[in-house]
Recover the amino acids of this structure.
């Protein structure tokens, strides 16, 4: 079987559709094969669309409706108009929560991409042990985020956690309670989120790097470019659409990064790490204010859709160049 | 200069490799140490192995339900999710390649929109509907949700694979008098196993690890998968560290072993565009 993915660009596909259209034209010649099968296609596609509508579109309408309603978790839904909005504004937490969510998502995404690009550059320049590293670096992405988060938060316990034991042994003191302080709690979570996700972004970026035609790189070598120049001047500009796409997706995923934060701090101490998904979850399932929770979700969702649209636009225009 | 650059990048990647690898060593090491040993001499390599950590984690654990039940629930949830996403997405992904090119393109764009819906928008309505239908705390029903949410990605990746499928094979089947459905089941599917495994693994990793949907739809401990059940470990560190780490070992090591065995498929699946999770 052919190895797919090497020949055509592996990752643009997710946000901007790019199909190998040449192959399709040849395909459509065979009308006998196509006509009956096209009918079969609709037999499968129509139910699929119904399912996706029920599971994806209807819930969004439902969220919109709940965001202007009061619903304590049981009984009828009562329309309350802008009351949820007023509550959010008056509580004051919302803006803090929105701000740290954005800070968290962007800094995690940025660090992931920066590290992934550096690591991909190192491996593609043919470092020794590259094959082994390629496998190992994805370990943190395979293990369940809950397990990873629990490991790190226990390691960060003052005195007994291994991170603190390590720090004590190199003379930096062993009683740092990073997760226990409102001022510092977000940093270890950012670290763990980055630690867990670099492997994935690395594999995507490495895949794109390897799909850069050898001829282009050879031309650069003839022109006297060294290894680093080859990467910064040739490879990096060519894989920019992929990098932008994965950057956008990492923002979106970490904006939704419920598991990591919940497992490490539950949003605390206080509300210091209460990102929007946790805020919404608590509003709904701890306080029974499903309307307010839905409103938080709607605002967050609208923001993410906007980010997604900008990301798609950017990676598409980078692709055309 | 060149040598310095090379040395630096070598040191850098090895540091990262150690940072990525060491935690899993500690997870396994602490999993077989007694809580006293973990606290008193965490780095010691000679100690009495505390195998009872595992039975403790498996049966009762620091939470109350235990890894055994959570494992079972995870298998049900992930199994249903895989079944739903593959069965629902692969046949249409194949037959859609016979649509006029522009139509297939439009179908892809519509399905692509499905990959961009933020989960945060879906969770509360899912809870409301599941509650009304009495499906809260049914792992298989939650598995259906994960399966459906994985359909768009599965469809897009499989569709792209089928578009590139050699037409000669299909025509040969037609000449041999096979029906169109037979061509799909007897010729195309067996030749697509590698791709299906790659795509399936992406769904598996996601459904195995996610907690955002499961925590809402499965709120009773005995109905929860590993990813949610283990959250009750948090705050229990001082009580039974050994069992906690035995639990972490059980949760983290099996997927890593599966990954090492199938890493070729995983890497390919991701290079293919796994980024449309």
């Amino acid at each position: 079987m052919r190895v797919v993915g090497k020949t055509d660009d592996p990752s643009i596909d997710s946000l901007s559709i790019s199909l190998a259209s040449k192959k399709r034209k040849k395909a459509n010649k065979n009308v006998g094969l196509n006509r009956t099968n096209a009918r079969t296609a609709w037999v499968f596609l129509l139910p699929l669309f119904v399912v996706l509508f029920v599971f994806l579109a209807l819930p969004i309408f439902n969220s919109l409706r709940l965001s202007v309603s009061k619903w304590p978790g049981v009984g009828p839904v009562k329309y309350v108009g802008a009351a949820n909005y007023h509550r959010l504004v008056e509580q004051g937490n919302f803006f803090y929560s929105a701000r740290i969510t954005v800070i968290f998502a962007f800094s995690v995404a940025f660090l992931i991409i920066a590290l992934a690009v550096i690591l991909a550059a190192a491996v593609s320049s043919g470092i020794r042990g590259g094959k082994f590293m390629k496998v190992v670096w994805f370990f943190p992405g395979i293990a369940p985020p809950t397990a990873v988060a629990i490991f790190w938060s226990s390691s960060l316990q003052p005195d007994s956690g291994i991170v603190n034991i390590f720090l004590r042994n190199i003379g930096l003191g062993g009683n740092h309670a990073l997760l226990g302080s409102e001022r510092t709690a977000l940093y270890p979570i950012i670290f763990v989120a980055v630690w867990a996700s670099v492997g994935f972004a690395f594999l995507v970026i490495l895949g794109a790097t390897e799909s850069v035609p050898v001829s282009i790189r050879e031309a650069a070598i003839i022109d006297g470019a060294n290894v680093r120049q080859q990467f910064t001047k040739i490879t990096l500009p060519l894989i920019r659409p992929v990098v932008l796409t994965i950057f956008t997706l990492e923002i979106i995923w970490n904006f939704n990064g419920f598991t990591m934060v919940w497992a490490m701090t539950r949003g605390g101490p206080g509300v210091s790490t209460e990102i929007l998904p946790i805020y919404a979850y608590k509003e709904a399932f701890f306080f029974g204010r499903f309307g307010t929770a839905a409103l938080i979700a709607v605002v967050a969702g609208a923001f993410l859709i906007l980010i997604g649209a900008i990301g798609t636009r950017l990676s598409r225009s980078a692709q055309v160049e | 200069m060149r040598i310095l650059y090379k040395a630096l990048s070598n040191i850098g990647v090895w540091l990262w490799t150690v940072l990525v690898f060491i935690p899993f060593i500690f997870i396994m090491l602490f999993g077989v140490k007694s809580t006293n040993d973990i606290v008193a001499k965490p780095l010691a390599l000679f100690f009495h192995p505390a195998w009872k950590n595992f039975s403790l984690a498996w049966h009762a654990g620091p939470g109350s339900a235990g890894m055994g039940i959570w494992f079972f629930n995870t298998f049900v949830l992930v199994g249903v999710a895989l079944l739903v996403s593959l069965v629902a997405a692969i046949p249409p992904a194949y037959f859609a390649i016979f649509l006029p090119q522009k139509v297939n393109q439009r179908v892809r764009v519509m399905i692509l929109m499905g990959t961009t819906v933020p989960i945060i928008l879906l969770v509360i309505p899912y809870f409301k509907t599941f509650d009304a239908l009495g499906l809260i705390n049914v792992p298989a029903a939650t598995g259906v949700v994960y399966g459906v949410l994985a359909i768009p990605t599965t469809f897009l990746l499989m569709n792209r694979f089928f578009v590139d499928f050699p037409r000669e094979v299909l025509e040969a089947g037609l000449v041999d008098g096979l029906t169109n459905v037979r061509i799909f089941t007897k010729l195309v599917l067996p030749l697509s196993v590698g791709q299906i495994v790659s795509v399936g693994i992406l769904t598996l990793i996601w459904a195995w690890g996610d907690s955002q949907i499961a925590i809402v739809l499965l709120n009773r401990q005995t109905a929860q998968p590993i990813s949610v059940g283990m959250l009750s470990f948090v705050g229990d560190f001082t009580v039974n560290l050994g069992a906690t780490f035995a639990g972490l070992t059980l949760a983290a090591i099996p997927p890593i072993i599966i990954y090492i065995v199938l890493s070729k498929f995983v890497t390919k699946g991701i290079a293919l565009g796994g980024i449309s999770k």
Observations:
- Chain A touches chain B through 124 residues (CB under 8 Å).
- Residues 31-66 of chain A form the longest helix (36 residues).
